[in-house]
Amino acid sequence: MLESYSPPHQGMGLHLHGSPGDSGLRIMAMLHHAAASQAEHSLLWPLCAQLQRLGQSVLVIDGSQSESARTPGLAQLLSQTAWQAATELRSLAERNTESRRVATLPARLGLARLRQSAQDSGLAPLSALQRYVRGYSTVLIYASAEALTPLLGEQSLQPLLVLPPDTEHLIESYRQIKHLAVFADTHCTLAALEGSAPPEGPQRYDWSRKQSSHQSAAQDSQTRLQRLDALLQCSQRHLGDAPVLLRMRWRQVSDLHQLTLHMLKTACILPMHEHGLQAVPGADAAALPSLAWSH
């Protein structure tokens, strides 16, 4: 959807003082639903690329993908000591910085285990995660509302919910909004993707509606706006607050800049806590077994 990018707006830099890790870990979240995954990916990776352009080292915790022996991820990370896991990810962060790639970890199983791991450590879930992902300045959790809700606790975090260009997913979107509002007292940011621009050239005739294709496209756009407005009103009436709505227009890079700035403002920033990584007495980092993280 947004294939090319202009330089980030200078105002974004005001949200990114200091070197990565100096002020803590920035946590963002994007909601995942299988039926809307294509639309979600069209925004997920440009957002991560924009964050990297701002000097952030980004790690995507991908709850849409399961870990396995061939593709280890968060579950395997949690089975290590926090010190050993941080050593693994720090090396990964350095490699991805050099290649300008966004690091991702499969995390469907790991996110389910994170809450129990946090309870065992006496920490909040996101604080427990922070112990394992040092070396990154920004972590974006990409997971379903059901997987994300137990992790939020009392943290101030506003997940991003992507709405595809069609109107078929609005009911499912409201279900996710309601789940977060009821079980986590958290409200979303809605990124409404608009369809591609109509093809240039002479107008076609829409025989099913007995009008031009441009008239049909205009009617579809108006219907979608009405349903989006109904979604916001329903959220306001029944959930106590309406989500923030951001329009993502076709090839409008300024919209991506606005979204990036909004995500920076609404991210959860975990300060450096006193629970340092416990080194293994007498152990050498180079001697520890290494996992072949796949990205």
Mind explaining what this structure looks like?
This protein is α/β, with parallel strands linked by helices. The chain is 42% helix and 15% strand. The protein has a five-stranded mixed sheet. Strands 5-6-9 form a three-stranded parallel sheet, sandwiched between helices. Strands 7-8 form a two-stranded antiparallel ribbon. The C terminus is likely disordered.
Structural features:
295 residues; alpha/beta; 5-stranded mixed sheet; 3-stranded parallel sheet; 10 strands; disordered C terminus
Set out the fold topology.
Elements: E1 25-31, H1 37-53, E2 58-62, H2 74-78, H3 82-99, E3 103-106, H4 108-121, H5 125-130, E4 138-143, H6 145-152, E5 160-163, H7 170-184, E6 189-193, E7 205-206, E8 211-212, H8 213-239, E9 244-248, H9 253-266, E10 268-270
Parallel strand pairs: 1-4, 2-3, 2-4, 5-6, 6-9
Antiparallel strand pairs: 1-10, 7-8
Helix pairs in contact: 1-9, 4-6, 6-7, 7-8
- Rg, rounded, reads 21 Å
Instruction: State the shape.
Output: globular
Q: N- to C-terminal separation?
A: 23 Å
Major β-sheet, in short?
Answer: 5 strands, mixed
Which parts are unreliable, with pLDDT below 50 for 5 consecutive residues or more?
A: 274-295
Strand content: 5-15%
**What is the helix tally?**
9
Strand order of the main beta sheet, please? Answer: 3-2-4-1-10
Number of strands: 10
Summarize the amount of helix as a percent range. Answer: 40-55%
Specify the oligomeric state: single chain
